[in-house]
Amino acid sequence: MDLDAYRTEAEGFVSEISREYYRHFAGLQDELGIEAVYARHPGLFTRAAVEELRAALGDGAAAGDEARRRRYLLDFAVEGLLGRATRTQEAELAKREAELSLEIEGERIGFRESAVEQANEPDRDRRERIETARLAAIEERLNPLHEEVLETQHTVARELGWASYREMCAECKGIDLASLARETAAFSAATAAAYPDVVDAPLRRAVGVGLDAARRADLPRFFRCAEADARFPAASLVPALRDTLDRLGIDLDAQPNVVVDVERRPKKSPRAFCAPVRVPQEIHLVVPPIGGRDDYVALFHEAGHAEHYAHADPGLAFEFRVLGDNSVTEGFAFLFDHLIEDPEWLRRHLGGELDPELAAHVRAVRLLFVRRYAAKLGYELELHGAERPLEELAEDYAARLSAAVGVPWPSVTYLADVDPGFYAAAYLRAWALETHLRAALRESLGPAWFDEPEAGDFLRRLWREGQRRDAAELLAEEIGPPSRRLDFGAMLADLELEATPAPSRSR
Ligand SMILES: [Zn+2]
Fold first, then answer.
1. Each residue's pLDDT tens digit, 193-223
2. What is the CA(135)–ligand 1 centre distance, in A?
3. What is the DSSP-derived secondary structure letter of residue 262?
4. Where residue 112 falls among pLDDT bands split at 50, 70, 90?
5. Fewer Cβ atoms within 10 A, N terminus or C terminus of the chain?
6. Residue 239: is the preceding peptide bond cis (ω within 30°)?
7. Helical segments of 208-355, H only
8. Residue 145 C-alpha to ligand 1 middle, in angstroms?
9. How far, in Å, CA of 414 to CA of 400, rounded?
């Protein structure tokens, strides 16, 4: 196989796909022309390409960066092949989700809006009726397609020569999923006793009942925390980002490669997003200028991705600029979105204090999310490991999620709640990376590290190499000390669930 020709074509494909997503979700074009992009690159995602890339990786001739590049390419080819194998069902799922509506007491609401409706609905019973209708729609209209997708993923993984989809992902992504699951299970065990106390009061304030009586339907309203919105006005949304970047030595308006789109357009996505169309030359940061706490979090998260991509060395190999371990880019995105709950950042950049109730809320939601994703990872290892009957898996999913979150969890979402390629693992590793990185920045630069130009210098140095190294390597080799592992100890300390360990030398 001509690896360089494959790389060139792969980069073209990624760029074309990103442009389609960008133009569609920015509201610039109605169609999402993914099919046409795949059709223009018929040779990229064939079984032969996967086999040749696997052989190129296994032949032992490549070491160091060349070996990494080949593994990232293999992961890209496998993901693309699976994406193509399931594209019909995925397109049908998207179509049904967009068309489905739920009938709630004679009123129709869109399936996709239903979580937003729940978040805005003060009446618990109506939240529950939305839940019941949504779960019924998932079971009847979506689960048959989700089952087909799952079967195809498992069949293709075996046809490609792996023992299971799980083995395939572990090898292509170079992540020891079993050991990560042990770490996260230990985190869940360590926080089990404190969890009800951390969550109960904020939950009661937001939805009117504590953990003993709460239902899954109450959670979107709990996460939303609409009471805090007044503190986060639309007019300050982009200026807050501009000022924050400015302190880090980044002039957002002068970055030729970061295109910020704040225009209002009827079909623009209601969530901020980042589209790295050409890395690092053309990165789009698309912002719906709405305001409210959620929008600040979304914008800062996406800005973290945008700056990570925008600062990649243009001379780096394509695999390092665009592919690799997504725990790294997610870690930088979390570092930025965490600022929205940082008391020192709030005081300096938005004026005013982080009131104790909001602080308790964000702590509870963070703990809930990490426990939820830990449970998801444990379940996904079962789902994608040895073949088990679907009913058994659905029960296993509900039992794990109920135990982790502390509310009765429905089994119906056992397939809809799963992202392909163990993305749950990337989020968990990113959360761990972010807490270690932030602790190191605080330790060397103080609680207002984000206002220190040195923090900007440090981040830009890490960003230059894109995702050449994975999250664990970055932590041990750059954030340090070298013995530091990508574990959840810093997260426990950050959540004040354990005595803060003795400070260690950072960077
Ligand atoms: Zn992200």
1. 999 999 999 999 999 999 999 999 999 999 9
2. 27
3. -
4. confident
5. N
6. no
7. 219-224, 237-247, 293-310, 318-322, 326-337, 343-345
8. 26
9. 11
